TrEMBL record:
Residues 3-97 form the DUF8112 domain. This is DUF8112 domain-containing protein. InterPro entries: DUF8112 (IPR058425). It comes from Natronoarchaeum mannanilyticum.
Amino acid sequence: MRATLTQLATGLRLADDAHVDCDDCGDTLRDGASIVVRLTNERRHWSVDGIFCDDCDSTRTLDGPGTTYVAARVGVTSDGATQSRWACLVDPGPIAATRRRPDD
């Protein structure tokens, strides 16, 4: 099966709460906030390695193979059965990337 990065990243959990904090300035980012997220891909497993507000996104660097930055918004997903809510990635679009290692 093949999927685009946008398909894979949509809905990706960002935090166990309904908001996230910018990794640079610490500002609280709530539902609808524009963000830049650093994702890494190791052996076909994507993980969130950084969340930044619009004011801090200019400090990004491509750290190594498999690093991708996406522009997105904070969304909130809920589970009525557990009465829980958490922040997730909404409307992600790649803005910068490095090549993966050949074995990834």
